[in-house]
Amino acid sequence: MKKTYKVGVIGATGMVGQRFLTLLCAHPWFQVEVVAASPRSAGKPYCDAVGKKWCMETEIPESVRDKIVMDATGDVEKIASMVDFVFCAVDMKKDEIKALEERYAKAECPVVSNNSAHRHTPDVPMVIPELNADHIRVIPAQRARLGTKRGFVAVKSNCSLQSYVPALYPLDGKFGVKDVLVCTYQAISGAGKTFETWPEMVDNVIPFIGGEEEKSELEPLKIWGHIEDGVIVPADSPKFTAQCLRVPVSNGHMGAVFVRFENKPTKEEILSVWKDFKGRAQELELPSAPKQFLHYFTEDNMPQTKLNRMLENGMAISIGRLREDTQYDYKFVCLSHNTLRGAAGGAVLLAELLCAEGYMD
Ligand SMILES: NC(=O)c1ccc[n+]([C@@H]2O[C@H](COP(=O)([O-])OP(=O)(O)OC[C@H]3O[C@@H](n4cnc5c(N)ncnc54)[C@H](OP(=O)(O)O)[C@@H]3O)[C@@H](O)[C@H]2O)c1
């Protein structure tokens, strides 16, 4: 792999785009060369284009403040010639995003995407680097379909499932996870909002997030899937059922999980699997990988969204309240930061994996 990679952020003025910039400004391998957004922002210095939409806890990084925003759709070839790969998080129609990401890939510019558009394209890997890192081996088949040498699209999964899938996946290998019921309690930043831009969410809960329950039930099956004949074949188990609620929290998605196993483990066995679990991201010591991916809290009132979402820079999963259930085998709660682990941070970690495994050279 190279020592440093030049990267572009497509959708840099959006909420996830801003997160990318705050993570990348101090990154040991990646250097932001291009910021791009809609034609509305193109041609303006980044600080003017983002203006009052800047909503990170820290200031706009000096290295991008004065960069002239490029046109994400009009300047594809130019951007592709300036960078080693791009991160993409844009608010456009699904078919437009699909086409845009393939245009970058066909211009020999790999795309690491936050968008959902390509999550179910069979030869596009959807990766949580600790769990299914081996799915990136489908990339040569995708390159063959696209007719590219370097270009490809890789995606991260939806933010809602990044709390419960990491907790369940390592248990499945040992005890066979059969049925999962999950209720998620999701932060407003997941909708690209703050309390200033969505005042109706103060003191409120909304029992509907468009498309979220389908994603929460279906996407885990692709993560559990395997590569066969150049595509990822989704698994047909475990079975998931989900209800997703929007709650008045700025950042952090919590899940309340009920699980039934093929072979019911003891509580101690579950805790020991979580404690010892390490994935490819930890083996490779990737810069954004948490040292301990799964943290178990023994206190009855933990984890809490406000207290624990930033655990290991917002990249670790917090779990608590594991106990036996009267209808399922066990129940527990889990928490992850939706715009760090669940969005920009998860994509940066995926890009690190792709670099370390030689897919970005
Ligand atoms: N927020 C989350 O926690 C989260 C988590 C996971 C995935 N995602 C996904 O990430 C993507 C971005 O989400 P977000 O919350 O960051 O959205 P957002 O705050 O609304 O930002 C959207 C970005 O897309 C750009 N854009 C809009 N129309 C465009 C066009 N026609 N051509 C090129 N660029 C265009 C915007 O540029 P302008 O500023 O110039 O309009 C802006 O940079 C979405 O697909 C979302 O589903 C979000």
UniProtKB/TrEMBL annotation:
Q: Does the keyword NADP apply?
A: yes
Cite the entry's keywords alphabetically.
Answer: NADP, Oxidoreductase
SMART domains assigned to the protein according to its UniProt record, in alphabetical order: Semialdhyde_dh
Q: Which Enzyme Commission numbers does its entry carry? A: 1.2.1.11
Query: Where are the active-site residues found?
Result: 159 (acyl-thioester intermediate), 253 (proton acceptor)
Q: Which Pfam families has this protein been placed in? A: Semialdhyde_dh, Semialdhyde_dhC
Name a biological process GO annotation: threonine biosynthetic process
Q: Which SUPFAM superfamilies match?
A: Glyceraldehyde-3-phosphate dehydrogenase-like, C-terminal domain (SSF55347), NAD(P)-binding Rossmann-fold domains (SSF51735)
Q: Where is the Semialdehyde dehydrogenase NAD-binding domain?
A: 6-139
Q: Which domain of life is it from?
A: Bacteria
Select a single GO molecular function from the record's annotations and give it. NADP binding
Family the entry assigns = Belongs to the aspartate-semialdehyde dehydrogenase family.
Read off the NCBIfam families from this record.
asd_EA (TIGR00978), PRK08664.1 (NF006416)
What name has this protein been given in UniProt?
A: Aspartate-semialdehyde dehydrogenase
Gene that codes for this? asd
